[in-house]
Amino acid sequence: MEVGRPSSFEVKLNDELLFSKYETTGFPIVDEILEQVEKAVKGEEVAKVTTSAPPVDMGNFFIILIAIALYLYGKPLIQLVQSLFS
């Protein structure tokens, strides 16, 4: 294991760089990494993965989840709370 830059990482296969979060500024797409690993197992030529998924801001993610929950279940929740106090 090698220590790299903070908050970035690299995926290597047989000492060859397969993916770099630093270069792509995102997270690897797992299916693309697995596709290259399968090629290596079969003895085929492996290509560096240069596409990535954008990083997820967990703060925004939870706000979105709360907003969706309130949209879907807000009225029943308000009615439940009101019934508890009436």
Automatic annotation (TrEMBL):
Top-level lineage group: Eukaryota
Pfam entry (one): Rdx
Transmembrane stretches, start-end: 58-74
Record SUPFAM superfamilies: Thioredoxin-like
Keyword terms of this UniProt record: Membrane, Redox-active center, Transmembrane, Transmembrane helix
Record's protein name: Oidioi.mRNA.OKI2018_I69.chr2.g5745.t1.cds
Species this protein is from: Oikopleura dioica
Source taxonomy: Eukaryota, Metazoa, Chordata, Tunicata, Appendicularia
